[in-house]
Design goal:
The structure is a single chain. The chain is of the alpha/beta class and 344 residues long. The chain is built from 12 helices and 9 strands. It folds into 3 domains: 56 residues, no CATH class; 166 residues, P-loop containing nucleotide triphosphate hydrolases (Rossmann fold); 53 residues, Helicase, Ruva Protein, domain 3, CATH 1.10.8.60. Strand 1 and strand 2 form a beta hairpin.
Length: 344
């Protein structure tokens, strides 16, 4: 508290000194507002030469004189004078940056997925690259050919086939922004809340372009309006249709949506100009299962007797999520053999 009053007293002394200098005509400045120097503007004080003015912005139009009789009509933003020891300031700034970077390194971060983490989906990834990469990264090529970029791509397939992982990995590979939402999480308890959340997502994507929006479980967000009775669902579908129609003229934003029940979607979403492209994720074949097993066990010290090929032969019908769970369960079984008792 004493330091506060001391600083306040110093500020008053500085103001008094400046006022005395202004009265004696010792305070000069080259900055003029409305053809008058600052030292001649009444009731506004004065700005010493050693304080830099970053900008002078005129809210009104032209250079008309101030007719309000209350001083200055312009907004002046003043920056503090540069430090005499510029090097010291830079050193301090650099030290602060290093400290912030050091703190950031201490924070645990989850590894970012890559397309190398996706197994058994080579044809799907190739198709998505063709549909998504060029519109996001080289939209000028589409313009030259008179093509319209796709607005939305529907990812269709059973649960656990890698739809979410592929979408996130694709955004990482293309180095574009990525916004993911889950259908049920958009719903709100107040009137219009869900529609507002959806609008904010699309607005954020437009500002972050190039950007991928990923909507998981879109069938719960946009069900067939002829089969639902709730007004909330109907309004939400209408809002989504409106937003996607507005995206027709927006460059650098594509919506990916995942569903395992495409027949439950509102038919209007699958018309041209919306989700007019569909990419199907299927249950992996033997080669796909083997690739997934190799990815899931690449950090595991497998015994020489383990045959991933034999396991893939036995895992008919399993999808990526099943195979990952299988590998994790095997690893935990090995852990229990090494540490039979885990008492606190």
């Amino acid at each position: 508290m004493n330091d506060f009053f001391k600083g306040f007293e110093q500020l008053l002394e500085l103001a008094k000194t400046l006022e005395e200098k202004a009265e004696k005509g010792e305070l000069k400045t080259d900055i003029r507002v409305n053809s008058r120097s600052f030292s001649n503007i009444p009731r506004q004080g004065n700005i010493p030469n050693d304080i830099g003015v970053s900008r002078i912005r005129t809210p009104g139009s032209g250079d008309d004189d101030d007719t309000h009789g209350s001083g200055i009509s312009e907004e002046v933003i003043i920056t503090p004078p540069p430090s005499e020891d510029a090097g010291g300031t830079e050193t301090s700034t650099a030290a602060s940056s290093q400290s912030a970077a050091s703190e950031a390194k201490k924070q645990p971060t989850s590894p970012r997925p890559s397309l190398g983490d996706v197994g058994g989906l080579a044809p799907v990834i190739q198709e998505l690259r063709e549909v998504v990469a060029i519109p996001l990264k080289r939209s000028d090529l589409l313009v030259q050919l008179g093509l319209e970029p796709p607005t939305g791509v529907l990812l269709v397939g059973p649960p656990g086939t890698g739809k979410t992982l592929t979408a996130r990995s694709l955004a990482e590979a293309l180095q574009v922004s990525y916004i993911a939402i889950v259908g049920p999480e958009v719903m709100g308890k107040y009137y219009g809340e869900a529609e507002g959340r959806l609008r904010k997502v699309f607005e954020k994507a437009t500002k972050s372009a190039p950007c991928l929006i990923f909507i998981d479980e879109i069938d719960s967000l946009a069900p067939d309006r002829s089969k639902v009775e709730g007004e909330v669902e109907k309004r939400l579908v209408a809002q989504l249709l409106s937003l996607m129609d507005g995206f027709a003229k927006t460059k650098g934003v594509i919506v990916l949506a995942a569903t395992n029940r495409p027949e439950h979607l509102d038919p209007a979403l699958r018309r041209p100009g919306r989700f007019d492209r569909e990419v199907h994720f299927r249950v992996p074949d033997r080669a796909g299962r083997l690739e997934i097993l190799q990815i899931q066990t690449r950090e595991m010290p497998l015994d020489e007797s383990v045959s991933l090929g034999a396991i893939s032969d036995l895992a008919v019908g399993m999808v990526g999520a099943d195979l990952k769970a299988l590998c994790q369960k095997a690893a935990y079984s090995a852990l229990r053999r090494q540490v039979p008792s885990l008492e606190a």
